């Protein structure tokens, strides 16, 4: 899949960055997240991977993935995603690494791709 700038990235999200937080009454650090990049073009999708022959009662495991423009600053430890996109509402963390995807021009990153997982309500 190749994008021309942000063509095809039909969703929008906010990239939040972890910042130094305050301390609670037990002097433990609190995580604080601040909007770092707002209204970023992106594209959420689910991927089942290769189709397998399953036994009765088995289910294909689906993963949620996110495509971002090549210039987006993001990694799996200091950033999270905030989305209001229908079907993908909430906060998401990056699982593993963010991958650079090259398009039809060699040595030029076309877009970024990452597997993500939703952060349960009340967790950070």
Summarize this entry quickly.
With 124 residues, this protein is mostly beta strands. The protein contains no helices and six strands.
List keywords for this structure.
124 residues, globular, 52% strand, single chain, Thrombin, subunit H, six-stranded antiparallel beta barrel, mainly beta
Could you explain the architecture of this structure?
The structure is a single chain. With 124 residues, the chain is mostly beta strands. It has one domain: Beta Barrel (Thrombin, subunit H), CATH 2.40.10. Helices cover 0% and strands 52% of the residues. It is built from no helices and 6 strands. It has a 6-stranded antiparallel β-barrel with strand order 1-2-3-6-5-4. A hairpin with a 2-residue loop joins strand 4 and strand 5. The two termini are 32 Å apart. The relative contact order is 0.24. The mean pLDDT is 84.
Counted beta strands: 6
Order of helices and strands: EEEEEE
| Estimated structural class | mainly beta
**Strands in their spatial order, largest beta sheet:** 1-2-3-6-5-4
* Gyration radius from CA atoms, angstroms: 17 Å
Number of discrete helical segments: 0
CATH class: Mainly Beta
- Please tell me the total number of domains: 1
